[in-house]
Amino acid sequence: MSAASDETAEYTGQVEVGGTPDVRELPGLRVTKVAVGPYNNNCYLLRDAATGETLLVDAAAEPERLLAEIGDDRLVRVVQTHQHPDHWQALAAVVAATGAPVAAHAADAEAFPVPATELVADGDVVTVGRSRLSVIHLDGHTPGGIALLYDADGTLADSPHLFTGDSLFPGGPGNTWGDAERFTRLLDDLERKVFGPLPDATWVYPGHGADTTLGTERPSLPAWRERGW
Fold first, then answer.
1. What pTM was computed for the model?
2. Do the domain assignments include residue 2?
């Protein structure tokens, strides 16, 4: 059993560094959101309800904190959403303690301090226990940025859950540092692969800060395109 309690208040996605994680029970999967490190990174522990196996999205910082939240659960994989160092400061320590393999997109894989032994691409499926998450490649914030989509094998198709790393936040896409080509690639990918096929009720779990939904962000797409960031 992980350190997170089974008895949780209603999930809000509001977490603070040093504070209590927020826990959400989905069909087949428990989501534990933890804020860590000087850049207020979000890490997500995804625990399969059937097997207790756990997947970590971004080993960002504070490895002792992350390992405490994993507890006695078996960490079967660390998925890195992209190559930026604030998202992998705890990676070496977590892998050393658990032996978990690292999954990442090939375009970003060489940046990590621990080799990514599982290279994923757009449309691939990552598993944790009996739960399956689809990989969505989002080029722009970094070349190999990815998101993970969970819909409980279609039972949450009307309200799936999307872990976006730094590719999508409340208020817009991730930073592309004024590079018009990178911004266009990222927004094109978001419109085609995320906003196009997914419903408004899709819950978005970003790499920093508060959660959002696609329905909240969708009306702003033209304004994002016009402003260029």
1. 0.95
2. no
